């Protein structure tokens, strides 16, 4: 397909207008709009162009050249509203364009090859992404196995440590008993010493001999007992126990030494106490005490035998524990070896794959470079031909300028002649006035002189004084014929005539001349800003005051409308609200770092003034992760965002400003507080002290004993089994506590893919929320790295979940978000399905579709799926003017500088009375733009499509433009 060009030697100016056809699989049709003077262009079968150009120049005419697909020849239409006989005075000029068509065809082929290369590159990149994802999956599996092995090793190590601690504790007990035995032996030695002293002082020689014999017997028994104790302890323990026994032996030896010294002392004192025979009874008591001491030594021997048996048993257990520890160490070493081997193999495979991809990309770069060189060469040739045509056009422009100047000179001559004629009439009028005055003063005037001076016209109007004085003052007047006025208007020159720079026009992206609108032009009356104006500060202050006044006006209108709403507009349906909600997500991923409830409470009045009706608050419960999506104790609302009292105060402020407070509720999973005896974290604490029976049995990480899951598994925390009766009853009580005691009005339900929507229906019926939104986030369909046009399967899955709740809850329209990512890049045809409806959930169930562009997961600091930054205003223009319930993200409203734009769109939605069930009719959806009527009072346009309500036959009534953002979007409201 080629583009036809005309040599500009025949035209005054050329305005290039590329107009893209609505057909997808054909290259765009391009048009030249050529301003010329009485020029006809026709195409003949011989490949020649024939031009009929007038020899004289008259009013401007327009020639439209078009080129269709393939080889179809197009006849150029000639649009003219001037004289019909201009062809008779023309001349014929022929131009050959075979080379131009060939170059254009080569250029289009090069562009097609570039597109093919881009598609191949995208496919390779997609394969690379898939391989990286698989590699990450393998790595995560290996790391999971490694973690399991490490956890088993840690458990074995803990068991070994526990047994070792028990053995050490028993050893400590044995040592304490040995210390007690040592103390008993010392006490025995002290008592022997005392008894010996008494015997030394009071016994007779006979009695002293007997006492000495008994003491020696006690010494031998004590020595034998000490020897036996030392032997038993030496065979029963090692190391520290031997040290203790050695100390006890030393103590006993010291006691024996004391006893020997006491015996010597007794021998020395025998002579002094021969006659004293009164202490026989005391000696007998000493003998009885010696018998008791021997019995005590026997008991100690029996206890030492028992301790020796226990020490032998502990040694056997210690040997067995060491064997198990060695086995676990060997197993861990084997696992580490396998892991290293797998990592090495995966690294080699990744390196090989990376080298292959690099080589393929290098080949693609080389091919692209060669094709680009060929395309640039062809483009240079084409550019040379175009430059030659431009030179010819310049010559034609100069000739046109000369013709314009000649016409200007002729017009000036005619103006001078008119001035001379008016001067002549003024002179005649003065002469006539002079003659009339003379006639009134003297009746003897020569009438022929009057006739001669005034050309014989004055006497016809003498009877009417008003006409007479008008004639004398202005001279004779006759109306200008319409054909003469039209001719004068057509040749009226502009000084100097504007010359068009042809290369700039041909490379310009504009289709038409965008002149400033009257309300955009600066004037003193409107006091618009103008650079260098002395009133700039005053105007800025006035604009600020005007913005505040408009905001107050909108707030007063909303307050008035609130009291004037019909029952249908104020009636709340459980889970779906009134249908006129505008939700505001009041946090992002980093909000937990500040005292968020206090900050959000201060913004409640501002949000209410802007038209927001509901605020989505962050997860309120205590959580393992500070963002709140890993809850533990559900009844503990002291989170990273603030305390329970601050949360209640924030909700009260929301209610005071007429806003609904939606709580972010996590029902799919919950983090445990304790480990089970087998070391798994599946014991919950707090008020809801559940056990493994509250966890689904197919959760691979937490060994639940409940029923299988009714949805997808969330692997980071235990998945709750909602089929258990006690679980559902506890959750219902908790939700009612949040509604009645804390003050929440509705729910945003996290990760609803994890369990059946039937349980959501039961919870909504129990808690009766004003509004409910489910997060059913699923992947869209892609083909070759590009988004598929047909996304019916994706939106069907979301609709299936809403059906499972029996329509008691809405759901985020993830389908519409994904489609807008591509549609707003000049692919507006994605916004209409074959049935003429929107392609998201909005097209099938608009009253349950919650539309959004961004949230804390897709945007903020996570950025999992960010919306194109340069298309944010277009995206909000779409969701805020269409059915469904729109959601505004905190960052966009307060941080991105588009707050005034969002407020303007909210005002348009309010004035048009758009709600979640509003009717929608799509008029256009192609590459150039998108046009739709929502309800009865609003029409909106996206893109650079040249359209307004007057061009649509089916739109009746009077429409006024409410928002005009040029090629981004425009909004009209019915008057």
From TrEMBL:
An individual GO BP term: carbohydrate metabolic process
EC class: hydrolase
Domain Alpha-amylase C-terminal beta-sheet residues, every copy: 910-961
Reactions the enzyme catalyzes: Endohydrolysis of (1->4)-alpha-D-glucosidic linkages in polysaccharides containing three or more (1->4)-alpha-linked D-glucose units
Gene3D superfamilies: Glycosidases, Golgi alpha-mannosidase II
Keyword terms: Carbohydrate metabolism, Coiled coil, Glycosidase, Hydrolase
PANTHER family assigned: ALPHA-AMYLASE
Signal peptide range in chain numbering: none
Alphabetical list of InterPro entries matching this protein: A-amylase_bs_C, GH, GH13_cat_dom, Glyco_hydro_b
CC cofactor: Ca(2+)
Stretches assigned to the Glycosyl hydrolase family 13 catalytic domain: 581-909
Protein name in the entry: alpha-amylase
GO terms of molecular function: alpha-amylase activity; calcium ion binding
EC id: 3.2.1.1
One Pfam family, short name: Alpha-amylase
Coiled coil start-end: 100-170, 290-378, 535-562
Family the UniProt entry places it in: Belongs to the glycosyl hydrolase 13 family.
């Amino acid at each position: 397909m080629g583009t036809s060009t005309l040599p500009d030697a025949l035209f005054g100016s050329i305005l290039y207008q590329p107009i893209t056809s609505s057909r997808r699989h054909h290259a765009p049709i391009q048009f030249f709009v050529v301003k010329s003077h009485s020029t006809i262009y026709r195409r003949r079968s011989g490949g020649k162009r024939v031009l009929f150009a007038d020899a004289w120049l008259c009013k401007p005419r327009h020639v439209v050249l078009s080129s269709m697909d393939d080889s179809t020849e197009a006849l150029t239409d000639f649009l003219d509203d001037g004289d019909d006989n201009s062809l008779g005075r023309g001349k014929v000029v022929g131009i050959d364009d075979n080379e131009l068509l060939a170059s254009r065809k080569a250029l289009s082929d090069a562009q097609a090859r570039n597109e093919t290369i881009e598609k191949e590159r995208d496919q390779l990149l997609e394969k690379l992404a898939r391989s990286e994802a698989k590699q990450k999956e393998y790595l995560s599996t290996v790391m999971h196995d490694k973690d399991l092995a490490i956890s088993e090793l840690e458990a074995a190590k803990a068991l070994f440590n526990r047994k070792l601690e028990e053995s050490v504790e028993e050893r400590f007990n044995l040592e304490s008993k040995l210390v007690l035995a040592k103390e008993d032996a010392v006490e025995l030695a002290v008592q022997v010493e005392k008894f010996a002293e008494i015997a030394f002082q009071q016994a007779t020689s006979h009695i002293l001999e007997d006492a000495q014999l008994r003491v020696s017997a006690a010494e031998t028994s004590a020595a034998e007992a000490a020897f036996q104790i030392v032997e038993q302890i030496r065979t029963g323990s090692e190391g520290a126990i031997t040290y203790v026994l050695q100390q006890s032996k030393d103590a006993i030896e010291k006691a024996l030494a004391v006893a020997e010294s006491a015996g010597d002392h007794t021998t020395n004192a025998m002579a002094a106490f021969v006659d004293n025979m009164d202490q026989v009874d005391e000696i007998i008591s000493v003998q009885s005490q010696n018998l008791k001491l021997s019995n005590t030594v026997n008991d100690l021997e029996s206890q030492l035998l028992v301790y020796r048996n226990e020490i032998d048993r502990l040694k056997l257990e210690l040997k067995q524990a060491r064997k198990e520890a060695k086995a676990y160490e060997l197993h861990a070493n084997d696992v580490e070896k396998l892991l290293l081997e797998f990592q090495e193999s995966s690294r080699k495979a990744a390196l090989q794959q990376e080298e292959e991809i690099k080589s393929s990309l290098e080949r693609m770069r080389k091919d692209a470079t060669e094709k680009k060189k060929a395309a640039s060469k062809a483009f240079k040739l084409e550019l040379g031909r175009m430059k030659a045509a431009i030179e010819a056009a310049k010559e034609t422009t100069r000739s046109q300028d000369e013709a314009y100047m000649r016409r200007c000179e002729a017009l000036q001559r005619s103006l001078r002649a008119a001035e001379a004629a008016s001067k002549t009439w003024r002179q005649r009028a003065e002469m006539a006035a002079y003659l009339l005055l003379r006639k009134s003063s003297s009746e003897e005037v020569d009438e022929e002189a009057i006739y001669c001076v005034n050309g014989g016209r004055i006497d016809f109007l003498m009877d009417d004084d008003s006409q007479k004085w008008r004639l004398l003052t202005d001279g004779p007047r006759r109306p200008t014929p319409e054909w003469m006025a039209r001719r004068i208007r057509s040749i009226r020159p502009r000084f100097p005539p504007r010359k068009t720079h042809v290369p700039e026009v041909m490379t310009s992206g504009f289709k038409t001349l965008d002149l400033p609108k009257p309300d955009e032009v600066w004037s003193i009356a409107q006091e618009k800003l103008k650079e260098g104006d002395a009133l700039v500060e005053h105007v800025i202050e006035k604009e600020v005051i005007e913005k505040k006044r408009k905001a107050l006006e909108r707030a007063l209108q909303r307050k008035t409308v609130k009291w004037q709403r019909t029952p249908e507009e104020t009636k709340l349906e459980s889970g779906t609200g009134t249908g006129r909600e505008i939700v505001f997500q009041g946090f992002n991923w980093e909000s937990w770092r500040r005292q968020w409830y206090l900050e959000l409470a201060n913004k409640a009045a501002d949000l209410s003034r802007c038209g927001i009706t509901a605020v989505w608050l962050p997860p309120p419960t205590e959580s393992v992760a500070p963002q709140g999506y890993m809850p533990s104790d559900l009844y503990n609302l002291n989170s990273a965002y603030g305390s329970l009292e601050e949360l209640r105060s924030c909700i009260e402020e929301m209610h005071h400003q007429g806003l609904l407070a939606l709580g972010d509720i996590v029902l799919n999973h919950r983090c445990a507080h304790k480990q089970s005896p087998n070391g798994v974290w599946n014991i919950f604490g707090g008020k809801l002290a559940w056990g493994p029976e509250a966890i689904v049995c197919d959760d691979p990480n937490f060994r639940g004993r409940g029923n299988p899951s009714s949805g997808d598994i969330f692997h980071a925390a235990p998945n709750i089994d909602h089929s258990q009766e006690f679980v559902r009853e506890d959750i219902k009580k908790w939700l009612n506590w949040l509604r009645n005691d804390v003050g929440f009005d509705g729910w945003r339900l996290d990760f609803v893919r994890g369990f059946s929507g039937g349980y959501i229906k039961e919870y909504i019926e129990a808690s009766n929320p004003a509004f409910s939104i489910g997060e059913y986030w699923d992947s869209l369909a892609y083909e070759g790295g590009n988004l598929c046009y047909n996304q019916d399967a994706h939106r069907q899955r979301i609709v299936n979940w809403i059906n499972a709740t029996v329509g008691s809850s809405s759901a985020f329209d993830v389908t519409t978000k994904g489609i807008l990512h591509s549609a707003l890049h000049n692919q507006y045809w994605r916004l209409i399905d074959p049935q003429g409806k929107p392609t998201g959930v909005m097209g099938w169930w608009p009253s349950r579709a919650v539309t959004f562009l961004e949230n804390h997961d897709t945007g903020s600091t996570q950025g999992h799926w960010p919306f194109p930054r340069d298309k944010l205003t277009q995206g909000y223009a779409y969701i805020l003017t269409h059915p469904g319930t729109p959601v505004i993200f905190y960052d966009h409203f307060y941080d991105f500088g588009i707050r005034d734009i969002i407020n303007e769109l909210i005002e348009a939605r309010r004035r048009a009375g758009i709600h979640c069930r509003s009717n929608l009719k799509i008029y256009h959806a192609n590459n150039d733009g998108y046009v739709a009527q929502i309800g009865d009072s609003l029409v909106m346009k996206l893109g650079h499509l040249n359209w307004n309500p007057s061009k649509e036959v089916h739109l009746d009534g009077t429409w006024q433009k409410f928002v005009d953002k040029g090629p981004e979007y425009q909004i009209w409201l019915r008057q």
